[in-house]
Amino acid sequence: MINKHLFKPRQQFKILVQSRSLATQLNPHPFTPNGPVNSSKEHKDGDIRNDWNRNDIQAIYQQPLLELVYRAASVHRMYHEPGKVQLCTLMNIKTGGCSEDCSYCSQSSRYSTGTEAGKLLALDPVIQEAKRAKNAGSTRFCMGAAWRDVGGRKRGFDRILAMVREIKGMGMEVCTTLGMLSSEQAIALKDAGLTAYNHNLDTSREYYPEVITSRSYDDRLSTISNVRDAGISVCSGGILGLGEQQDDRVGLIWELSRLPEHPESFPVNALVPIKGTPLENNTPVAVEEVVRTIATARIVMPKSIVRIAAGRKMFTDAEQAMCFMSGANAIFSGYMLTTDGVEKDQDAELFEKWGLQPMRPYENVEDTYENKIQAAPSPLQQTQQA
Ligand code: SF4
Asked: Where does [2Fe-2S] cluster bind (predicted)?
């Protein structure tokens, strides 16, 4: 990583261009004992592909871990500025009482978890919280409601549209997660200024029925399609530690990689088992599986923001650094929807320790590291200009 205090911006770019060129010459994965992991000769790392073969993704996932991290870090630098991490704040605007049976969730009315059902919050406390989040450095404000869908909640939906308008007007990115969405509702959210909509696939298609039965995998894909068609960024990822196997984590990434466009955001949650849910006795997922999932997603969907979401509190600072090295470039700071998050001052220390910097609002794939490198003068041009 480049120490920004030692080098001026142009020197930084020069060094980065040179190091990238060297990395390319060396081939990012020459020492993989299992041989080349990309069986398709016409593709190279960093290509944006929607025709991924599940076996190829499996081979990437199963590489020796440090080779995988190195390869993911190389792809990360093609599209993102290393060390830049997006800070998001999450707020539960309607808690508990949900009709769905997601077996990990404390907000489902089917389980005795102690979470009480609340009403949709009024506009004012939400706006106040968004202002606090902005003042603390967050650039994205995400609002979650524990609902199966938005249907039949006209007054509530209108209030959420007002929240989106106000928070967008504050210069923040706005994200919501409100359950299943029709195309008309997606368009209304887009018109209000919504940046992104979160709707996770959670796991592979095969393992999904072990976790949720009250709505199907295709229901989820349909909502994602409505969001995409409305011109809203898609945030869709999964939860690790549901009892799934490696193949299911690969299956999750594979499903998302084959969408007409990759999700702009891929959140990786580590299950925090909640008493009273069917998964209360699950063993927490090993951090190396989290790192493998992040690194594989980075390689398969190079432009996406990869987000460390719920469960981050279980990981040490060094383990989180490994996640950042593997291509993660967003975190939730503060509370999660149903589990403890990491306090903002702890994150400030984490950023200081590892030399990380918060991303600006709307600093995403349109403002990529790759574009900046290409826009920067080449070493030859710099010599001519000198
Ligand atoms: S995850 Fe969402 S849809 Fe599922 S039970 Fe919890 S609040 Fe309801």
From this structure: 142, 175, 235, 307
